[in-house]
Each structure stands twice: as structure tokens, then as C-alpha cells.
Amino acid sequence: MNEENKYEHTNRDKILACAQKLFYERGYDAVGVQEIVDAAGITKPTMYHYFKSKHGLLENLLDEYGNQFLGELEKEIEKDGSYEDVLRNFVYTYISVATKNKEFYLMAISLFSSARDNEAYIAAKPYLYKLLFVVQDFFRKNASKVERLVGKEDFLSISLTGVINYYLLVNFERGMSEEVLLEEHNIEDIVNQFV
Amino acid sequence: MNEENKYEHTNRDKILACAQKLFYERGYDAVGVQEIVDAAGITKPTMYHYFKSKHGLLENLLDEYGNQFLGELEKEIEKDGSYEDVLRNFVYTYISVATKNKEFYLMAISLFSSARDNEAYIAAKPYLYKLLFVVQDFFRKNASKVERLVGKEDFLSISLTGVINYYLLVNFERGMSEEVLLEEHNIEDIVNQFV
DNA sequence: TAATTAGTATACCAATCGGTATACTACTAT
DNA sequence: ATAGTAGTATACCGATTGGTATACTAATTA
């Protein structure tokens, strides 16, 4: 009945997009519901109709934006090639997807590092593990190609995720552009640490 | 007149200690001033007497606890030895100091990853850079011993900090103890990535 | 056509937010 | 002795917090 792209300009999507931007700029706790609905040009009951609470809004945000992010990373694991090649592609894709969704990505990193008993951390925790599992899957599939790395899959996934996250965090803070972040010598620096 | 350790049980220190604990548990924005002063067993005007605002409280907290943390790391840079030896000691000291001040350390990591325009991030930013500079100093002094690493000091410092931070974040989350975190094979895994 | 449902707004709630005006006490310095 | 200062409490401030009761409209379904 409706193949049209209605789904792009609904109030629900406007709320998600505005919440994402505000959470990125100032953080989940610092942004009030009123501010979100003002930015989206609607009123509170509309937000509480779609998402049952502020917490529910964050959960939906993480679910829709986050799984899209992880999906793109998972596709990269399927590909075949030498360890160094697939690693290089994986790192490139990770940074590429992260920079393309810079605001969501930084928001997610912030949530992953939030305080233990913070409401936002509790919502983000499953995705922190999902990301870790995706990177672990990558190493479980490919580390077997290099004897020295066998058995180190857990550490390697923590280490790679840590390096890339901090690399992006610091260099976004420095105002570095997507193109520079993806330059060959920068990718190569990261790759070289894992060969 | 007073060589005694008065300075450990003053209201000021009680406020700092309680704020640190609460910020660690639930985050700066999620914790109200009232809750802090209740935990410290005093009232608001006392807090506003010592620190001019909630923001000022955080600044003092970072200044006193943070500089102590960085000081212990800086001492390690002075020491001499082969690249691999000083690196191993540096990593060991970093993790050791971080685990001994686990609550403060996790709070700091959380602040470093906070949203750009968040009040807490603005207070933490100088210390994010200070930490980066300390690690950079380490590599500027020692990377010269290994030709392959010369010129990579900036990347190396980001990378090492990223690995250790994420290593501690994930393994604290997993409930891993200080002893395990400092086990030789775990330290060696990290060190091996930087030789 | 009648009944139901999804979506939205007006107007409100108690509770909490960060912060302060005022006044008191206890100590210090003159 | 007296003036000043540091520290502390009672009681309050306006603003904002997350959330909702009620009512309306527009579209769908029976």
C-alpha cells in the first residue's frame, strides 16, 4: 500500500535523530526530554507514545543505529584473504564506518565508558559486548593463519578495539578529518601492531 | 602546631571522597549535589564554601587525585634501561597505579570519553592531554633506542594508552582482580605489541 | 456508519536540580 | 577585649527534571 519512503520523515525518526545529536553533544544525563522534543518540533506525549521512557528512547536508538553499525563490520568478516590483507580491510572498514557515523560512534564510546550503575551504561552494555564479539569473531577466524597469534584472540580483540577507539577519540578531538584518518600510513601503523 | 593527620578527616576531604565514589558509580551528571553532601554527612553551604560550584568540586577532584596519578607515572619515565625493559616497567606501573586507584581511574576514563560540550568533559580535557603528554614523553625518550619506532611517538602513545585503557575497562567490567591484571603473561601481551 | 486505534497537544504533577541569603558558632589575630 | 574570618546549618529560591491525565483529531477497521 505504501512503498514510499514515509519512514524517513516520521516524528519517530525525527525524535531519534534529534536525541542522537543531543546525546552526542552533551551526553544522555545532561539532555532533558523537553529539549529533545523541542528540537524535534513535537511535544512530550508524542515521545512517550513511541518510546515508553527516556531510557526506552536510548534503547531504541542503540538498537537501530548500533545494529546497522555492527552489521557493516560483520560483513567484513566473511571476506577471505591473507591475514594481513583481511586485517587491513577490517581496520579500514571499522574506521570508515566509524567516521561516517562519527556522532553516533562517539556517543556509543561515551556510553561504553560510562559509570557502572548509570542508566545509560546499562542500556549500552549489550552493544559493548556485541562489538567485542564481532572483533573476536574476526580474530577467531583469521588468527589461525599466524601461529604466533593463536590463543591470543581475546587479547587481540580488546587491543585492536582499544587502539582504534582511542585513535579516533583523540584525533576527532584534534579535529582531524575523515580523509586523514583513513590515510594509508595511518592504517598501516595500526595494522603493523597486529602482525 | 599541627603535624597530626587532621587533613584526612576534614569535611573538605570527606566531600571529595564521597563525590569521587558517587561519580564513579553513577556519573557526574546523574549525581546531585544534595546526594553528595548527604553521603558526606554535611550540608550544601559547606560544599559551596570549599568548592564554588559542582563544577569546581569536579575540578578540585581531578586536580588532586589526577595529578597524584600522573606523578607516579612520570617517575617511571626517569628510569633507564633497554627499550623493552623500560616499556615493561612503564606498562606494569600504569596498570598497577590504575588498579590501585580503580574507582578514580574508571571515573577519569569515563570523563575523557564524555560528550564534547558536557561540563564534565570540559573539566577533564586538560588531564586527558596531560596523560597523553606523559605517555608521549615516555616514547620520545625511549623510542629512539629502536630505529623502527622513531617518528612514531605520537601514534605509539595513543595506541598504548588506548590498549591499556580498554584492557582495563573490559576486564574491570568482567570483574578481573588486580593480581590477574598484573600477571606476567598479560603484561607481556601488551609489551609485545610495542617492540 | 459506528467503533476502534494511532498520534498529538494542552496543561499539569511531585520531585529534584544547582545554588544562595541569612544567621550562627568557633577560632584567630590584633 | 574585640574585630575579623572560616566553617556550618536552616530554610529557601526559581528552574527544570521525567512523566502523565485528559482530550482531541485523523485514519483504519468492522
Rg of chain A, please?
19 Å
Question: What is the strand content of chain A?
Answer: under 5%
Q: Which series of helices and strands of chain A comes N to C?
A: HHHHHHHHHH
Distance between the termini of chain A: 53 Å
CATH class of the largest domain in chain A, named Mainly Alpha
Describe the sheet with the most strands of chain A: none
What does this structure look like?
Two copies of one chain form a homodimer. By secondary structure, chain A is mainly α. Chain A has two domains: 1-51, Homeodomain-like (Arc Repressor Mutant, subunit A, Orthogonal Bundle); 54-194, Tetracycline Repressor, domain 2 (Orthogonal Bundle). Chain A contains ten helices and no strands. The longest helix of chain A has 25 residues, at 54-78. Chain A is elongated, with a radius of gyration of 19 Å. The termini of chain A are far apart. The model of chain A is unreliable at 1-7 (pLDDT under 50). The first copy, chain A, binds a DNA duplex (30 and 30 nucleotides) through residues 11, 32-34, 42-46, 48-50, 53-54.
Question: Layout of helices and strands, plus pairs?
Answer:
The structure is a homodimer of 195-residue chains.
Chain A: H1 11-26, H2 33-40, H3 44-50, H4 54-78, H5 83-100, H6 102-112, H7 119-142, H8 153-173, H9 178-181, H10 184-192
Helix pairs in contact in A: 1-2, 1-6, 4-5, 4-7, 5-6, 5-10, 7-8
Chain A binds a DNA duplex (30 and 30 nucleotides) through residues 11, 32-34, 42-46, 48-50, 53-54.
